[in-house]
């Protein structure tokens, strides 16, 4: 693949740096935060510039107002809590970054080529992390706890990334980006090989969560079936399908996913928190950062020592509740509602299916990992940008068609 320098190079550089911030080598040397701030600093500046430039086909006023609403809902609770200014800055930066990326990046990846380029920036970041892990002696293989691997295998490839689940999620978003590019533009030989490689590496990572999300994405791409249904019955069929999928999902979650000790462990973490604070309306509404950040124990241990050790904090919605309360949960609900609406509003079938599949997969990930509200893994942020970018592509294409 030829590397060409252009105005989008800064996007690729930022994505590469953010991916590299996930590496074990960088984390073990205490440089992860520095890499994150540099990477996101570059990315956010580019998002602002691209959003306000003249040849923008999106509703700037509407999107900016929605961004403000999300930002306020997610951060207002922090201002009522007793936390240090340094912690307030860090949490506000995270919220600002996610709010901007999830809403204002509509014109950031406004072509399938940019989305494809972003995928290869992540891949180069993973390759670099793997090499650093080998050269620095940090390793590229994890030892897995009993009961957490697949088929009893106790080793998993992490590709030099700090968590094997992060690694598998990075592989997933590469696969997603190249899959959509292939569907809309064309299947390039190098892209086919890369997708196959991503699947193989995900299996080798021994990440059940990663394989589950891969499966959900592949199944979600069959959303295109609705276009074969007459418009007269389409809304009814879609509503019926949503109800059926919802019932099946609840059944699978209750009887299969919770059957795995690791996922049940995560779900209990959320239940423990809700049970412990169900009578504390202030902290439930505005968040509870003051109780768990900047304590003698780490954030994770501070939460578990309060709510119970029989649960963990991987589920995204628990972290949102702690950081921003029910107002934050409402903000993320609005973000996902908007994403589903973008899928429905898109005129191009391939783009509509792509947005829907990415959204469903990202939403599913929130039940097992914290990707939707964390800047520590590129998967969530790249998914937001891909959804917005695909919709921006749709708007640009239809604007050009109308001018003809």
Strand and helix layout:
Layout: H1 9-20, H2 24-28, H3 32-52, H4 60-75, H5 85-103, H6 112-135, E1 141-143, E2 155-157, H7 164-184, H8 189-205, H9 208-220, H10 231-255, H11 261-277, H12 281-286, H13 289-292, H14 299-307, H15 316-345, H16 349-365, H17 378-403
Antiparallel strand pairs: 1-2
Helix pairs in contact: 1-3, 1-6, 4-5, 4-15, 5-17, 6-7, 6-17, 7-8, 7-9, 7-16, 7-17, 9-16, 11-14, 15-16, 16-17
Offer a quick outline of the entry:
The protein has 404 residues and is mainly α. Helix content is 70%, strand content 1%.
The helix-and-strand class reads mainly alpha
Radius of gyration: 21 Å
The stretches of 5 or more residues where confidence is low (pLDDT under 50) are none
User: How far is it from the N-terminal to the C-terminal residue, by CA?
Assistant: 34 Å
Quickly count the helices.
Answer: 17
Strand count, sense and closure of the main sheet?
Answer: 2 strands, antiparallel
Number of strands: 2
Shape: globular
Percentage of residues assigned to helices: 55-70%
What does this structure look like?
It contains 17 helices and two strands. The chain has helices at 9-20, 24-28, 32-52, 60-75, 85-103, 112-135, 164-184, 189-205, 208-220, 231-255, 261-277, 281-286, 289-292, 299-307, 316-345, 349-365, 378-403; strands at residues 141-143, 155-157. Strands 1-2 form a two-stranded antiparallel ribbon. The protein is globular, with a radius of gyration of 21 Å. The mean pLDDT is 85.
